[in-house]
Amino acid sequence: MGQVRKQNIFNTAGAAVKFAAFWVMVVIQLPIILLLPRGKVSVWYMGIFMQILLILSGIKIRVHGKISKHRPLLVISNHISIFEIATFPVAFGGSFVAKKDIEAWPLVGWVARKFGVVFVDRRPSHAIEALKQVQETLSKVSYPVFLFPEGTTTNGAYVKPFKSTLFNFVENSDVIVQPMVMNYRYRDGSVISDEDLAEHFGYFANAKQDMGPLCSHERSAFGQVFHIMMLGGFLVELTVLTPPPLAGMDRKQIAETLQKIVSDKYMELKDKKAKK
């Protein structure tokens, strides 16, 4: 059975070496990323870029089910930490819809734009313009686009309600929405307790949680990467579900339907050992 690795000087030193190697990798690849044309090629390259991060972090991926071949395709999932940004492109290809704040992050925002990420300003006064941009992107690309409808990461104890405004453009459109459920496990596939998930593996703000355990020490994004490297990584189990019929539903009904599908399946799988 898996357990949280005890932190000591050896784990810390190993994580420091891996973290330094990650930044060396970033610096080496910056000229490549700069020269890549935006579009399908740069989105494809994101999978290679992120694979290196996963190897250094000790993260494994296990996938159940298949992504639909229909386009335009919007894949929605629950959201626990920043590592979804790495695991999804490696597992499936494709890019993301992300909150506008990330665009301002030093270096990260620039790299994300090159990798085809669509940034959405979720303020009500900007919602129509932002969602129009998402719709236009979906209509043009040949790869899946991923969205986290909770609007934030959680502690992994539950799935928050989905923000219905994010589904405005889905009403009466040809966009297929495919739900996916993501679970974190120890590397051997055993269950991570809610307490350990919140304390060590989740990346969230305590103030935004409605239930379940809280973390005693909230980390920065890069602090979380370093912490996972120190722990030796984990397993991400992705369960791809069948796209539900959404025709005739308004955005609120779409959000509620998808949230129930994802939440029910997540709670069913959360305390079960990972499927082989």
TrEMBL record:
Q: Please state what the protein is called.
A: 1-acyl-sn-glycerol-3-phosphate acyltransferase
Is the keyword Magnesium assigned to this protein?
A: no
* Entry-linked SMART domains: PlsC
Q: Which keywords fit this entry according to its UniProt record?
A: Acyltransferase, Lipid biosynthesis, Lipid metabolism, Membrane, Phospholipid biosynthesis, Phospholipid metabolism, Transferase, Transmembrane, Transmembrane helix
UniProt lineage: Bacteria, Pseudomonadati, Pseudomonadota, Alphaproteobacteria, Candidatus Enterousia
Q: Name one GO molecular function term.
A: 1-acylglycerol-3-phosphate O-acyltransferase activity
* InterPro entries noted in UniProt: Plipid/glycerol_acylTrfase (IPR002123)
Which pathway does it take part in? Lipid metabolism
What biological-process terms (Gene Ontology) are attached? Answer: phosphatidic acid biosynthetic process
Q: Which residues form the Phospholipid/glycerol acyltransferase domain?
A: 73-185
Q: Which residues cross the membrane?
A: 12-36, 42-61, 73-92
Top-rank taxon: Bacteria
